[in-house]
Design goal:
There is one protein chain. This protein has helices spanning 8-20, 48-57, 93-106, 150-156, 225-237, 283-303, 311-317, 319-335, 340-349, 351-362, 371-395; strands at 2-4, 29-31, 45-46, 66-75, 78-90, 110-112, 117-123, 126-131, 134-138, 141-143, 164-172, 182-186, 196-203, 207-214, 248-252, 262-263, 266-268. It contains 11 helices and 17 strands. Helix 2 (48-57) runs parallel beside helix 6, helix 7 packs across helix 8 and helix 9 crosses helix 10 (351-362). The protein has 3 domains: 2-64 and 92-161 and 254-323, FAD/NAD(P)-binding domain (3-Layer(bba) Sandwich); 164-252; 337-395, no CATH class. The strands form 3 sheets. It has an 8-stranded mixed sheet with strand order 3-5-4-12-13-14-11-15.
Length: 405
């Protein structure tokens, strides 16, 4: 089995295969274009869903991390504090990913670093692909190599879509006074055209992981990368955080339930299959998808059918797929148009919705199992939205588009 990408999704798929069928030890190979440890832009939050996936895989958290049992959600002067039922563990992705790679090697999984998969062809017998200047073959090729995955490009053909954009940087905590057990989700920049939120997460080593997520919206402000980095720097100053270097930006695909994730001999998981469009979460999503991907391969090995026709349906019905689908719907409401104040006022002013949102972030519940509560919250909002929107308007700045000199 060949897996392109040795991040959390790729490692999870490989480990799932070897754990469930030890005879595959030595027959599963991970390929990655980088050498580990390698830089990886990410908020670094391990939610409860990530913890569950790691337990299922027999993987351990061996790197420094900070447990954050508290979250603060803000818009302007309106601030809501939430106690998380499960602390989110914040890691540095460079260390976390390298530790997963080492644990995979300890299980007898071969990892070829600085060896990207370069082109492939599929026939009835398997997949031929280039790697390290050689032509290799495998019964299955998994695309777990992120937004630029060659397998994803092959499956999506010429379909065009706009990615989510994220910008992230680590800075010294210094004298900011930021609590070491609290994560911030700040939506104030939506008044500047952002369709997403800004975050400040405490990170190991007396550092802060800071960044923002911008959701693609045809009706939202057309913000360039320079706009977004300037917006991030300016809004961080409100919290006493100053950037000492440019933030690194990267694109990410949001999960779409109808999008292809497989073809004969080919599978996608992790960022290549799509991240959470509401929160931008990718680690837990990738690991959960990696487990599903491993199960699909094991079934194919047993049945001899490598068509993987049921993979998209299996993903959609699994907890991770149901969560991603409802979060995609919520993201389109909150970020997808000009009515963002209506929906943000629901999140910030309805205690039950805020609790559900916080529980979704930390992974202590499956939001898709609480659709009735969401519907009831929407009905409440019909009668209360006027007052709530007024409260939001009084708390935040007027709508304005950031200008960059």
């Amino acid at each position: 089995m060949a897996i392109a990408g040795a991040g959390p999704a790729g490692v999870s798929c490989a480990v799932a295969l070897v754990r469930k069928d030890p005879s595959l030890r030595g027959r599963v190979v991970l390929f990655d274009r980088a050498r580990f440890p390698r830089a990886k832009p990410c908020g670094g939050g391990l939610t409860g869903h990530a913890d569950e996936a790691m337990r299922a895989l027999g993987l351990e958290l061996t790197v420094p991390h900070l447990a954050s049992p508290n979250a603060t959600v803000t818009f302007g002067s309106l601030s809501r504090a939430v106690r998380l039922q499960r602390p989110v563990k914040v890691v540095r992705r460079e260390e976390f990913d390298a530790s997963l790679v080492q644990q995979a090697r300890d299980l007898g999984i071969e990892v070829r670093e600085a060896t990207p998969v370069e082109g492939f062809s599929v026939d009835a017998g398997g997949v031929s692909f280039g790697a390290g200047g050689r032509t290799l073959s495998a019964r299955v090729l998994v695309g777990a190599d992120g937004v630029g995955s060659a397998v994803r490009k092959h499956l999506h053909h010429d379909q065009r879509s706009t990615p989510i954009r994220l910008f992230r940087l680590e800075v010294p905590a210094g004298r900011t006074g930021w609590a070491r057990d609290t994560m911030l989700y700040d939506f104030t920049a939506m008044a500047d055209g952002l369709r997403g939120y800004l975050w400040i997460f405490p990170a190991p080593g007396d550092r802060l992981n800071v960044g923002l997520m911008h959701y693609p919206s045809s009706r939202g402000a057309a913000l360039s990368g320079a706009d977004l980095t300037a917006l991030l720097a300016r809004h961080l100053q409100r919290f006493g955080v100053h950037l000492d270097a440019p933030a690194r930006g990267w694109p990410a695909w949001g999960y779409t339930p109808s999008a292809p994730v497989s073809a004969p001999r080919l599978l996608l998981c992790g960022d290549a299959a799509g991240i959470d469009g509401l929160t931008g979460e990718g680690i837990a999503v990738g690991m959960e998808q990696g487990l599903l991907c491993g199960d699909q391969i094991l079934h194919a090995l047993g049945s001899g059918d490598f068509g993987f026709r049921g993979y998209r349906r299996a993903m959609r019905r699994a907890t991770v797929g149901r969560e991603l689908a409802i979060d995609r719907w919520l993201a389109r409401l909150l970020y997808g148009g000009d009515a963002w104040r209506r929906w943000l006022s629901l999140v910030l002013c309805d205690d039950r919705v805020l609790d559900l949102y916080a529980a979704r972030v930390c992974g202590s519940l499956v939001l898709a199992d609480h659709k009735r509560e969401l519907v009831m919250a929407l009905l409440r909002h019909v009668f209360r939205s006027g007052n709530r929107r007024q409260r939001l308007a009084l708390a935040g700045p007027p709508d304005r588009i950031l200008s960059v000199s």
